[in-house]
Amino acid sequence: MRNAKAIFTKQALDMFNNPMVMVMFVIFPVVALVMTLLIAKTNDDIPNNMFVTMMGAIFAGMGLITSAAGYIAEDIENGSLRFLIIAGVKPHQYLLGTGGLLLLAGTVTSVFFALIGDFTLIEAIKFMTVMITSTAASIILGTAIGMFS
Question: In whole angstroms, how far apart are CA 70 and each of 39, 47, 54, 62, 133?
Fold first, then answer.
């Protein structure tokens, strides 16, 4: 468990040092907010949460795949993955640390999506359940792609 926590911390520091990764977690909710305020709120034919659900689906379905694959590919290119294996880090600990960070960041971003949308309590719970489940599935797919890259 200590190794997974160390990987989590390492990847978090890498995330905060790499603005391109951080932008992905910010840009999707910002675009959803802007489109909701400028388009959905001014047009009665468009539901207020349409852009939130659309951008949330894009974020959870595609954005996290590239992040997970990118983390693993970056560690392979830098040689740090080989160092971690030599240091005794098991594959499941590495994936738990990396995936845990992305799941946490994806969940926080999903909360922002839920706050932007005009959801009732039941709709917000359903939205968060779908977002967290699809975030986890995207991370698993992204790590599989990263391992084969």
Answer: 34, 35, 24, 13, 21
Per-residue pLDDT tens listing for the chain (149 residues): 788 898 898 888 888 887 777 788 899 999 999 999 999 888 888 888 899 999 999 999 888 898 888 888 888 888 888 888 888 888 889 889 999 999 999 999 999 999 999 899 999 999 999 999 999 999 999 999 988 87
| C-beta separation of 83 from 77 below 8 A | no
pTM beyond 0.85, yes or no: yes
Neighbours of 83 (CB within 10 A): 11
Q: Do residues 99 and 140 lie in contact, with contact meaning Cβ atoms separated by under 8 Å? A: yes
Q: Which residue has the tokens 């694959």?
A: 69
| Amino acid in position 53 | T
110's CB contacts (< 8 A; 6+ apart) are 56, 60, 127, 128, 131, 132, 135
